[in-house]
Amino acid sequence: MFFDLHIHANPELAINALKMGYSGMALVLSPQDYEDKSKILKNIKRTINTSPGDDKLNIKFAVEIDAKNSKDLKKQVRKFRKKVDVILVHGGDLKINRAATEDPRVDILSHPYRSRYDSGLNHVLAVKAAENNVSVEINLKYFLLTRPTQRYRVLSQFRQIMKLHRKYNVPVIITSDASSVYDLRHPQDVIALASCFGMTNDEALHALSTVPQNILARNEIRDQIIIPGVRLLKQRSQRDYEA
């Protein structure tokens, strides 16, 4: 089962991702448009119903937070945590990268290497990301749209992230950041491309399957978590005990 948790909220993209073999996705809305998710989902379902079997698509909604500073980041995370299924943080600035990795309410740190010459992470941030289950994004669009003469820099950034992943167990997730059908890639093509980043097949499969599934599963029970490691279970009714 393959998942892409960074696709722009376009019904056509959702249908094409399904046809390419994705089992689920997160459609990313802007903070201004998150209230339109029911309308978007309705349009997708209308299209899905025209093709037998397409109704099995697991569609979630996400928002990518572009914060001015760490204080603004916390404010926006608090605002959107219960309103969307997945929260991404627009990375690149070292202070934002740090604030995102330190916040367990954040799901994905997007392109922490954006506009940088390094990966945007160090061992301190890597430890924090691992402790707080904040996944670091390998953004395919960032790589594919970079000028050929500069792609060596992106490859170096991705390889740095994989070194941190192996040393500190940082969750790594691969996404397309697709805004058009031309940005989508078949999962098998993504796995093949990931070898250029120094990823093994198992690591690429983990980043496309296990990591996104863990994010979605964790967020389904997030409201039941009292403190880390302690979950509030649903109280049984008398009928449950009699059964």
Description:
The protein is of the alpha/beta class and 243 residues long. The chain has one domain: TIM Barrel (Alpha-Beta Barrel), CATH 3.20.20. The protein is built from ten helices and nine strands. Strands 1-2-3-4-5-6-7 form a seven-stranded parallel β-sheet. The protein has a two-stranded antiparallel sheet with strand order 8-9. The protein is globular.
CATH superfamily: Metal-dependent hydrolases
Question: Number of DSSP helices?
Answer: 10
The biggest beta sheet, please? 7 strands, parallel
Kindly give the count of domains.
Answer: 1
**CA gyration radius, whole angstroms:** 18 Å
If you average the pLDDT, what whole number results? 86
CATH class: Alpha Beta
Shape: globular
Question: What's the count of strands?
Answer: 9
- Helical/strand content category: alpha/beta
Topology as H/E string? EHEHEHEHEHEHHEHHEEH
CATH architectural arrangement: Alpha-Beta Barrel
Features:
single chain, 243 residues, alpha/beta, TIM Barrel, seven-stranded parallel sheet, two-stranded antiparallel ribbon, disordered C terminus
Secondary structure blueprint with pairings:
Elements: E1 2-8, H1 11-19, E2 22-29, H2 37-48, E3 58-65, H3 70-80, E4 86-90, H4 94-101, E5 108-110, H5 123-132, E6 135-139, H6 140-144, H7 151-168, E7 172-175, H8 187-194, H9 201-220, E8 225-227, E9 230-231, H10 238-242
Parallel strand pairs: 1-2, 2-3, 3-4, 4-5, 5-6, 6-7
Antiparallel strand pairs: 8-9
Helix pairs in contact: 1-2, 4-5, 8-9
What's the quick description here?
The chain has 243 residues and is of the alpha/beta class.
